[in-house]
Design brief:
This protein is an alpha/beta fold and 253 residues long. Helices cover 36% and strands 20% of the residues. The strands form two sheets. Strands 5-4-3-2-1-10-11 form a seven-stranded mixed sheet. A four-stranded antiparallel sheet has the order 6-7-9-8. The chain is globular and about 55 Å long. The protein starts with 13 loop residues before the first strand and ends with a helix.
């Protein structure tokens, strides 16, 4: 049990897991010096890790190139890739699971749907292929910060992503897929069970007795919902990185 290798911590059998966007950093922005110091101080008391939907390269952009050294556990792509003390332990493949024919049908449907959407802007990278999922963005991941904010506001009013997800559920009801809305501009598509609770397989196997999770998209359909509601997890819903730091200070003074 790896929890025994953290005897230098005040609470070696406790792990605190974090979402990234909106929890450790503003959406698609960089970690602040205050948050970085908060994590350094927290790591003296408990074991820490992040579980994010994006791939590791994006998490390095936000959390720093030394992200694998900042955290004891790193779970990119909902934990479908597992890093422990900087080393890659496990990985899963979406394309192997779904098969090439089904994958092409899924991608073609998404691209046709996006082509027919009437939204204020469209940029580029509407579908991003990741190791354990695909990420679908009607506005395109190449949009600017201003366009990202504008789309989020437009989507809140018109529920574009929710309607898109419902159309996919109807078209691909024969596949065991989960659709998870996260961040400002996109949603993830992955096999059912490959949500953020996937990382708990590793965490629980390593013998942690108390698991905390901090996330901002904890509502039903949000990409933090499943792990936030998991019976073995003490979930903390936050609205910003500042909110995260406040709760941490209350929990671990």
């Amino acid at each position: 049990m790896m929890s025994t290798s953290f005897s230098d911590r005040e609470h070696p059998d406790t792990i605190v897991l974090f979402d990234v966007d909106g929890t450790l950093t503003p959406a698609r922005d960089n970690i602040s010096d205050a948050m970085r110091q908060t994590l350094v101080d927290l790591r003296k008391k408990v074991v820490i890790g992040f579980v994010g939907g994006s791939d590791l390269s994006k998490q390095k952009e936000q959390l720093g190139d030394d992200v694998l050294q900042q955290f004891d556990y790193c779970f990119p792509e909902n934990g479908l890739m597992t890093y422990y003390k900087g080393d890659l332990l496990d990985s899963e493949s979406f394309i192997n699971w779904i098969g090439e024919d089904n994958y092409k049908k899924l991608v073609n449907f998404c691209l046709h749907y996006i082509a027919d959407m009437d939204i204020p802007q469209k940029r580029g990278t509407f579908i991003e292929f990741r190791n354990g999922m695909i990420n679908v963005s009607p506005v395109g991941r190449n949009c600017s910060r201003e366009e990202r904010n504008a789309f989020e506001e437009f989507d809140l009013k018109h529920k574009l992503r929710e309607k898109f997800v419902e159309a996919l559920k109807k078209e691909f009801s024969h596949l065991a897929l989960t659709y998870s809305i996260g961040g400002q501009i996109s949603f993830d598509v992955f096999p059912t069970g490959w949500d953020k609770t996937y990382c708990l397989r590793r965490v629980q196997a390593d013998g942690f007795k108390k698991i905390h999770f901090f996330g901002d998209k904890t509502f039903k359909g949000g990409n933090d919902y499943e792990i936030y509601e998991h019976p073995d997890v003490e979930g903390h819903a936050v609205k910003s990185p500042q909110d995260t730091m406040r709760i941490l200070k209350e929990l671990f003074p």
